[in-house]
Amino acid sequence: MSTLAPLRLLREPWNASEGNQSNATAGAGGASCQGLDIPNELFLTLGLVSLVENVLVVAAILKNRNLHSPMYYFICCLAVSDMLVSVSNLLETLFMLLMEHGVLVIHTSVIRHLDNVIDMLICSSVVSSLSFLGVIAVDRYITIFYALRYHSIMTLQRAVVTMASVWLASTVSSTVFITYYRSNAILLCLIGFFLFMLVLMLVLYIHMFALACHHLRSISSQQKKPTVYRTSSLKGAVTLTILLGVFFVCWGPFFFHLILIVTCPTNPFCTCFFSYFNLFLILIICNSVVDPLIYAFRSQELRRTLREVVLCSW
Questions:
Q1: Residues whose CB is less than 8 angstroms from the CB of residue 5 and which lie 6 or more positions away in sequence, other chains included
Q2: Residue 33 belongs to a domain
Q3: 78-98 residue pLDDT tens
Q4: What would the pLDDT profile of 167-184 be if each residue is shown by its tens digit?
Q5: What is the span of the domain harbouring residue 82?
Q6: Which residues have CB under 8 Å from 232's CB, separation 6+?
Q7: Burial class (CB in 10 A: 0-12, 13-18, 19+), 222
Q8: Cα angle vertex 207, ends 206, 210, to 5°?
Q9: pTM for this entry
Q10: Is residue 305 classed as helix, strand or coil in its secondary structure?
Q11: Residue 180 within a domain
């Protein structure tokens, strides 16, 4: 899949001169680094699946008044962010397919403007998606550790301010990235943002898991049922592993790619890693497919509303 302007330059780092790039590529080729050719149809299919899933999540939350709470508003915003990932991917893929088959002929200046619009969508969706994953983690932390004060801490007004701030920051940061995408400082900011979100989620979810284990241990010791404690702890560990594992597997390779661009743009190993850029994009799109399964569809109330939405649509 051909990537657009700044994303294409992420795959082929600007830090190296053409001579160094060719030498690195040759070195990588000597090491039998073939990269991975991913068909446009796969991008299109995953984008459509993600779009349908997240549209259903948004529709279900808007339909059911019982879901009109800060927690579900954050999940709704995450779904919208994932929809932006899907829409930008679908637009890019469709334009590439149409141009490759000669169906669509566009002037170079129009393509350049189209590149910028789609890249802004992609960058904004990446930042907002990561941000709302962090916001959801904080919201769940407050729910568990400050349960009695939750509604006074996470008021609707504060939730609205949080959501507006995330969308504004995502829009501004994507504009800055498109404008200064050749700067290593921009990449370092993106990498730092990802690491911050990773550490935040690790600390919060592990702390929540530790508290849950402590409560289960107390209950099982009082009832003298260690089997219940072990079973519940295992389920909690599995849930925690899924949450953090999906986040790291889907986002980690892309940001490791950015780290290598900054640190070793001409190294043969790094150049070989760059050739798998499309795979990293696929993983990000897969994250948009998996997010509704982890954060939305596990809610019984939302699943019930979802069935109503699907049945009404038929």
A1: 112, 115, 116, 119, 181
A2: no
A3: 999 988 888 887 887 777 777
A4: 999 999 888 887 887 778
A5: 38-311
A6: 212, 216
A7: exposed
A8: 85
A9: 0.81
A10: helix
A11: yes
72 located within any domain: yes
Q: What is the largest CA-CA distance in the chain?
A: 75
Instruction: Decide: 68 and 306 in contact? Cβ < 8 Å.
Output: no
Distance CA 163, CA 160 (A): 5
Domain contains 187: yes
Pair of tokens at residue 121: 């969508």
CATH number of the CATH domain containing 160: 1.20.1070.10
**Which amino acid type is present at position 216?**
L
Is 50:288 a contact under the CB 8 Å cutoff?
Answer: yes
- CB neighbour class for 30 (10 Å; exposed up to 12, middle 13-18, buried from 19): exposed
- For residues 154, 156, 159 and 161, what is the CA-based torsion angle, rounded to 10 degrees? -120
Domain count, the chain: 1
Q: What's the pLDDT tens digit per position in 236-277?
A: 556 667 777 888 888 888 888 888 888 888 888 888 888 888
Report the 10 Å Cβ neighbour count for 138: 15
